Amino acid sequence: MITAERKPLDEIMESIDGCGRILLVGCNECVTVCAAGGRKEVALLASALQMASMKKGRTLDIRELTLERQCDPEYVEELTPHIDQVDAVVSMACGCGVQEVARRFKKTHVYPALNTKFMGASEGPGIWAERCQGCGDCLLGLTGGICPIARCAKRLMNGPCGGSTNGKCEISNDVDCAWHLIWERMKELGIEDRYEDVIAAKDWRTGRGGGPRKILREDLV
Amino acid sequence: MKTESVLEKVLASGELAVTGECGPPRGALPDVVKEKAALLKGYVDAVNVTDNQTAMVRMSSFAASVFLRQMDLHPVFQMVTRDRNRLAMQGDIIGAYSHGINTMLCLSGDHPKFGDHAMAANVHDLDSMQLIQTVRGMRDKGLFQGGAEIKNPPKMFIGAAANPFADPFELRVARLAKKVKAGVDFVQTQCIYNIDKFETWMQGIRDRGLHEQVYIMAGITPMKSAGMARYMKNKVPGMDVPDELVKRMAGVPKDKQAQEGIDICIESIERLRQIEGVSGFHIMAIEWEEKVPEIVKRAGLYPRPQV
Amino acid sequence: MEQFEPTIVAFCCHYCAYTAADMAGSMRLEYPPNVKIIRVPCSGRVDAIHIMKALEKGADGVLVAGCLEGDCHFKNGNVKALQRVTALHPFLEEIGIEAERVQMVNMSAGMGGRFAQIATEFTEKIRELGPNPAKAGASRLAAS
Q1: CA nearest C12: which of C37, C31, C44?
Q2: Among partner residues C55, C96, C141, which is closest to A57 by beta-carbon distance?
């Protein structure tokens, strides 16, 4: 899923400076799961913004709404009845959701309340870690199901570098060496011999290198 | 002979080769490069010129290598994949070759976190293995990585680093095998302090006959003080400094520690040259270049062969 | 200016603090009338938003009172409550509300005396801290 974290309150407050009526919009998908922008977080942020404004001797008119999916136009449409009655939208979705709202409502300011972080998985309650960078040409089949692009600090396709110590990356003891994990997994799978196959230079066109990407499925259009 | 590289010629002659190192300055200071290089002249076959080492901005390896060439020294042009993409790297390779630089070292580079530009983008369009492949393709096939033909392709003698001590240890021989497969001609190892462990690694190398496919130059760094020994042991990733060595350094008075460091270095070379498959020494006297002549002479590696 | 009388909201677990408060009453122990008790089935039922709303609507201090460690009727509701209170503290600081206005306390049903003591001490502490800055700002607004 896509993970995100709330921006500092001061930054959000600064972005809505001068706005009295705010539509605070959450999303029921990924950001709900990572506890950054679901219904609960919308309520908390609304209360926090209200109190921060009260401190300054103002009150805000805050409407709270959490959409099923903020990155789909059908759901974003639900904001229509509110748009003319607010000065700004504050979105608690990932960057995709923020942009979808901005695209639909061209004359309304839309401000992000979250920093979108990465595509990741949960490693336990309250812990999420990066797993995929969407390179567009998955090589997990070659690397024992562990992605060196997302999980090696130098995205080495032929690692590990010389800085791996006790299975940890040289940048931090909190980061596993991806290539150590790959090697251990290769051994478990009995495919150690494949380690010596050099993975050739990657064609980044399938990733961001090729410019903004789009998927077109004729059968669904 | 694959190239015109003097280092290749020395290695091919069967003599023990010697390389040194010159870290370019953090400023437009050509004299600093020339002074450092002058200290090494005549005592080494080639001089590694580092590329933004420890992820700090320095005079480029390319520019500093050109100064060395002008002094009739033979630079080992280092290139890290951290700072530039394949267009920039290949452009520099043909540029360097045009300046008579025919030996290079392919590295991935320290993570920006360790330098003074931790906020920099970490490029890694290629990794060190793929850079080796690229340089070999440029030399042997005369093709750019993208497939187009190169007019007057650069004939680089291709080096890489090898760390016999990093984790997982069991992978270290396979890792060199992989670099050989990618097309490396010589490797310079991480500084060797734990000679027993290095011997174990070399045994693994010989078992697979890798020492006959790639020249292995043993990395040597003299320690200036007991403090440096402890720092290398505890703080430098992928470094293996045995306790006895730290104790030995700490066991002599402070003003004698530098000399003790040089003695250890000579003893190490003495022992390492006996190991089958060691083709030479890479002496990294970091900011201590003036000691290289003494080390080379005392180790019996002087004079350098004329090839 | 007359003395500031803080409003304290105490979320009290039905199985301990609520009974303890009751007992304080029947023991004729005095504690400040500033403390408004809200009975909850477990301190673990108290969510961050309940505390936030209490503050937003005018509370100067909030107590979350649960069972003694290891004695939660629902196993670990009191542990979760403490986690939530702790997690809320930096958020309150971001807003500009002192973290010490929100506190987690533990007691058993029999601790009428402890309840009265905590209620008194916490009220005093909040009295010293002064009014909730959000409320103070809002009343400035009303006055102007």
Answers
A1: C37
A2: C141
